[in-house]
Amino acid sequence: MPENRNKYAPAALAAGALLSVLALITPQSEIVISVIIRLMAAAIALYYSIKLREWKLLLLMAMYILMSIRQILTLFMWIGLIETTGSSRFISELPGFLVTLLTLITIIYIGNELSRERKIILKQNSHIDKLSGLLPICSKCKRIRDDEGYWKQIESYIEQHSETQFTHGLCEDCADELYGNEKWYKKMRDDS
């Protein structure tokens, strides 16, 4: 990591020196410094947009450039290079309007992305409590082999791996098999 910091140190020193000189010789130095900082930020956004292949960073770059243009136009009006008229004021405000539109587009995009990510997370969370995959089950006793190799009753396995709880009863076939010869059972069946 220190190598990367040293790699950019000369550029940072040069930028700092340039800003210091401009602050001394320019009547509206704060605007010039602000423009230079925004243009540097635009260059950094462009660099990372290319490096990360992330087009959304180009919106940031465009915003920084538009803000710089607005400040340059304002500076030119202040020092008299552009005559201050209604149309020149409108033109100097236009980049600010475009920045506002780009910001709105960015906010909408980020909102949609967050909403999409939230839906994915909710969908993933809803599947957490569901069992999936292949379960080794005994053909005779219907016990399930867990990850440690132990055979467990199907009820305890499912209760441990989900939020399901069991109650017990008997289906008609099993009730007939267990109690089919009992008088009380035959009577109960005949009555129903």
From TrEMBL:
Top-level taxon of origin: Bacteria
Transmembrane segments: 33-50, 57-82, 94-111
Keywords noted in UniProt: Membrane, Transmembrane, Transmembrane helix
Protein name as catalogued: Uncharacterized protein
Species, as recorded: Spirochaeta isovalerica
